[in-house]
Amino acid sequence: MAKALPGGQPTDSDTPHFDGFGAVPGVRPGQRFATRRALAQTGVHRQSIAGIAGRGDRGAESVVLAGTHADDDHGDVIIYTGEGSVDPRRQTHDQQLTRGNAALAASAATGLPVRVTRRIATGPHAGSYRYDGLYRVEDYWSEQGPHGHRVWRFRLVQLPAVEQGEVAQPTPALTAGTQMRERGDRPRSVSSVQRVVRSTATANLVKRMHDYTCQVCGIRLQGATGGYAEAAHIRPLEPPHDGPDAVENVLCLCPNHHVLLDQGMLIINDDLTVVNRADSTLLGRLHETAEHRVDRRHLAHHRVHHGLPTDVTYQA
Amino acid sequence: MAKALPGGQPTDSDTPHFDGFGAVPGVRPGQRFATRRALAQTGVHRQSIAGIAGRGDRGAESVVLAGTHADDDHGDVIIYTGEGSVDPRRQTHDQQLTRGNAALAASAATGLPVRVTRRIATGPHAGSYRYDGLYRVEDYWSEQGPHGHRVWRFRLVQLPAVEQGEVAQPTPALTAGTQMRERGDRPRSVSSVQRVVRSTATANLVKRMHDYTCQVCGIRLQGATGGYAEAAHIRPLEPPHDGPDAVENVLCLCPNHHVLLDQGMLIINDDLTVVNRADSTLLGRLHETAEHRVDRRHLAHHRVHHGLPTDVTYQA
Lengths: 316, 316
Hints:
The structure is a homodimer.
Chain A: E1 32-33, H1 36-42, E2 52-55, E3 59-65, E4 72-73, E5 77-81, H2 99-110, E6 114-119, E7 129-144, E8 150-158, H3 172-175, E9 179-180, E10 190-199, H4 201-209, E11 221-223, E12 226-228, E13 230-233, E14 250-253, H5 255-262, E15 266-268, E16 273-276, E17 281-285, H6 296-305
Parallel strand pairs in A: 3-6
Antiparallel strand pairs in A: 1-7, 2-3, 4-5, 5-8, 6-7, 7-8, 9-10, 11-12, 13-14, 15-16, 16-17
């Protein structure tokens, strides 16, 4: 059934469940808008004041970089600071992973694209807004702000041009942040990246050290060509974490526990007790071997990364 | 510690565990070689006759497209036919998922890059070989050959230029098929893509229909922002499968069972009994609801895809 796009145009019948995510038909990256009101009316950013538009259960539809926050803007990579008392001079409480911040966190889990608009600070167009296309929330973490209060930070990475949803393509709203099928006799399906599992030479070594057995639950998945496991870097390789690609920073996990660790739902204490953060149950103790020790500093980094105090371990 | 590269040069100390995968230092895409012997001596393809070089437990290091097989070569995408009685006039038995075929299947699981060399069939350089860079094994499946015998087919997708391992970069052998970290104060770590989890609007709908509960094991992972599940297309969207992005072709699975389904280790019969192919144990029955029915034709396609006869269900 056809639903209304933010812009008002109906979707064609090949695009079910359009829900405000992705490119807005007729709006190209680089297009300028005079006011927040214009951004809202066209559906680029459907919030008149808030910097984050979206829903916590699905993801963030769009963000506006107003230039007033402590955002770390590298163009194609943005370290976006969450909402809630973010001015260092006025921050009086911790930011919470709720509302807009929860929406951005959900985007990391669903892989849905986020529209990014920047407020132009200088030059002839100062004060206006520029839509800069679609980004993906690759990671998020908490940091201690200058006054000791917690801020949430989100790593947004620009999607390739082919995934920016050119209006020339069919169903632009849904092709945004997606990849088309190579052949198209039937209506083309589009997909967004929900998760990318990476590996490294060190990661493959750790997987072999544990014979592809999960260090949390002890399961060993039998794949088509042998054991299957995934390597998790406790302290991520990417900035700002800059974790080392070393065996003491890598765990051999089954995909389920890899997802939970990456989402901060699996907390590992220095004594290697593993706690399920969702219900505070104790899952057991991380399996460590003589040849493969885990660096406790990286475990502490992971706890802080996900909003726990650095000097306190998590109690089941 | 420094190890010898296929080309003979030592790796620098920042590249542990080099194992013959990825770009060969000094060899750029497009470079020609007069003979198979030259290919072998430089380490581009360390087999004098076989088309696939590698190890079943780690992956394929390289393949040579000799132009004699029924390969479907689109340049950046290659449907590569496995080894073992591949000439339709002479195929007298099924190809097995062993040796070179097992190595290519392992590459799909490990994400390690595969060097691709093409034999030049026509023109002034006819008969010579051209190294065409690094590819990823994205998928593989079995088909019935012209004479009713099974052939294994592998979908190789060319890696982006940035991942082709320019010699100018440090540790070229390991940067091949990889992505560099954005910052490099410490020696840069490199990673290869082991797995990409995609989603679609229909997939997200199915996940909500089941409240992110795995249809095989009933587990519901609690992520940071709600339930976490992955959607699996029973019949893949990509050619040559061309499965529909429709609810009856999608399952809501936990990451563990998603991996097993994709690798053909989870067999679902028409009566929805689920069998663990590794040990032929019965895992139970797929959870189906009134609003979400599974199309048995796609289940049959999945069984054939992974080498089971189409008209026979799998016995536990």
